[in-house]
Design goal:
By secondary structure, the protein is an alpha+beta fold. Helices cover 34% and strands 31% of the residues. The chain has a five-stranded antiparallel beta sheet with strand order 4-3-2-1-5. The chain is globular, with a radius of gyration of 13 Å. It starts with a strand and ends with a helix. The mean pLDDT is 85.
Length: 114
């Protein structure tokens, strides 16, 4: 299963100006019993953060929203490293190729519309 996490807060300046509601997103990959969040820092710099189920509840208490996507995709880290934004990273993890979705808010609306 893949979880896409959306946040209204970010430390970057450009998303504060361009994005409306959600300003950051991060994919969370569920492998067996462990959760790994891929946090976008910059191009060719993606941090892997190990999470527990308790951490998901803590993030939810701080205002993060989660969209659950059932999937059995095997990811290649080289493919993820070439992402240019957090939205591009999230779209690559779920295998989405739409060029019109460029902000976290647009991605959230697209995923919750289904």
């Amino acid at each position: 299963m893949i979880i896409i996490a959306f946040s209204e807060n970010t430390s970057k300046i450009l998303p504060r100006i361009l994005c409306r509601r959600f300003r950051h997103c991060a994919p969370i990959i569920c492998n067996r019993n462990n959760l790994i969040m891929y946090q976008f820092i910059r191009h060719n710099k993606i941090e892997q953060i190990n999470l527990r189920t308790r951490d998901i509840a803590i993030l939810r208490a701080y205002g993060w929203r989660f969209v659950y996507i059932p999937s059995d995709i095997q990811l290649h880290t080289n493919y993820l490293l070439n992402a240019y934004s957090c939205v591009d990273l999230s779209k690559r993890t779920i295998g989405m190729k739409s060029v019109f979705i460029q902000t976290p808010n647009a991605l959230y609306k697209y995923l919750t519309r289904k």
